[in-house]
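Schema walk-through. Below, the input block comes first and the output block second. Nothing else is stored per chain. Lengths vary across the set, and this one has 245 residues.
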Amino acid sequence: MFKWLFKKIEKKHDLIDFSMLKTDIHSHFIPGIDDGSPNIDTTIRLVLEMKKLGFRKLITSPHVMSDAYDNSSEKILQGLNFVRNELKIRNIDIEIDAAAEYYIDYNFEQKIGKEMFLTFGENYLLVELSFVDAPKNLFDIIFKLQLEGYKVVLAHPERYHYFQVKDYQDLTQRGVFLQINLLSLIGYYSKEVQDKAENLIANNMVRFIGSDCHNMKHVELYKKCQTRRAWHNLHNSGKLLNSTL
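--- output ---
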């Protein structure tokens, strides 16, 4: 049964950095192609701060949205090479790779089986949904992706207000991996989102955690996450797969 927790004012816990995670799977560091980093100097600053937080590998994931950021795989990989070369020139020792955060809509569905999507690890595919409502045929789309060999990772499920207990259970039972955002642990998006994230952790449904970092404001807040009970619980759960990538 899903455990809804009684909320109390939380005291600070000891700081646990993100070195156990090793890898961040969700960020927007390729400059100028979505709502993330606007230029290479900002990218470098963000990468350096992520390294200080304990990350040794970054898998950046630009938005792919047909009506806003219609990024091709080629464009994303070109941007990745640009960032890699700049890191090398500046002698910054951190591994960086790229996947994408695919927005599930009609256009995305039409590409399944026709286009090779950018993935990470063992064919993990990061997808996101509308914040207004889920596609009516969401489970059909997930099944089509799985038939193509993709392991579907749902970005920030705690931020979809329309998902309730049964929805999360249905998703995980269908083999979907849930990825929550670090900033959800400190109530950055809302108290409701924080509660959902904590409850997903308490019920062992979380398999990935990501920064979803877009800017310096975000990166300056991650240290607060390191002292939260929910992060400690997730850190100690043995359920996270970030370090396997």
